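Researcher: Next entry in the queue.
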Amino acid sequence: MFPRDFAWGAGTAAYQIEGGWQADGKGPSIWDTFCHEKGRVFGDQNGDVACNSYELWEKDLECIQKLGLTHYRFSLSWSRLLPDGTTRHVNQKGVQYYNKVIDDLLACNVSPMVTLYHFDLPQALQDQGGWKSPSIVSLFDSYAKFCFQTFGDRVKLWITINEPYVCAKLGHEDGIHAPGLKEPGITAYLVGHNMLRAHAMAWHSYDSLYRSKQGGQVSLAINSDWVEPFNTDCNEDIAATERYLAFTLGWFAWPVFVTGDYPEIMRSAIDAQSKKLGHNDSSRLPSFSKDEPSVLGTADFFALNYYTSRKVKPGEGCGRMMCMKSDRDAAEVLDPSWPICGVSWLAVVPDGLRKLLKYIKDTFNNPTVYITENGFSQVGPLKIEDVQRAEFYKDTILKVAEAIQEDGVRVGGYFAWSLLDNFEWADGFSVRFGLFHVDFADEMRSRTVYQSGQEYAEMILKHKLGK
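Model: Structure for this entry, 467 residues:
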């Protein structure tokens, strides 16, 4: 059902699991700052300790081995390696920590997939404008080159930036993620633009300086739901669905995989809305400069984070105010037949993943796709026998197999989110995505495998044996 070299993985991110927020010379990140402000996160919780993976890495490695993973996706904390965000000061304790993680994984025949940026910008760089500032591009490139130079002899799969859509919109438009800015209608587009520029520059640096020696691959992780028209016979619903896809998946995939520029649907929708509101300056969606390295072709594979699906119809604006919702003019509708797991937004639609994979194949020139995140949440009372989540993984992996066999999609791997229950951003510890439960009331942060983790391990073993 799956290629012999298929990557069976699980993922985590530095701020969500590591803790040690001030340990051994680490600098603060924007998530440290955000969580220490009252009212930002559920229960005013924070990632100061989280799963304490900075001290308990060996426990994580045991979990990885129990599952029989071939790959493990984790992120580097930029401010643990470079406390002020620049290479002027390197924190050797941070380098030692990640060297140990990588070396231990390889000693257990597990390949690392390493994310350079998973939401946690050094606060020192935020103080200089963060992702809004054009200077962030070369600062990110310097950080990326430092990581390629330091770890790239052993890391062959790199993600530059995780979910630029989420960083841009939730962090700079909605204000519900760090850095907590609410600057609707302009800043998210600028941040997304600088993230694409930073990604492209880092990819070109890898391509020209490291690829021939290290032989790795570099991409960025793009999140997208699968969407369909609320009424398949309604032209307005069909158009709204196209806009929705352009403003999420297309925003980052179109420049990288298709044209080197943003989707025309996206630009024309933004410009039309600007005109309507009397905003007659230059387009709120920036343009790529011919003087910079091209963003087109700067991905060696397609990294997809998929969680859920939606039906779409026109609507959901902000009245006379400029905002992304009004630009997009696409309202999300949940199909009542879809079960909800845990958090209200997460409808369980495994078939949506198959459809999205086929869409990616047809739209983005048939790339190799790694599903870099996909998971099922639990809220409320703890259930170690998480039967629904175990079923979800079975159903989803079956759909991935169908995408490979019947639709001809070149899927290179599947990474469950997440290895561990962890700090789930603005939801704190109230939402659990782990294959292993972490007891946050226990100082030792004991890890206990969920039924879904055991069954995922059985699936992996079965496919490894070619059954």
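Model: Residues 38 and 44 are 6 Å apart (CA to CA).
Researcher: Noted, moving on.
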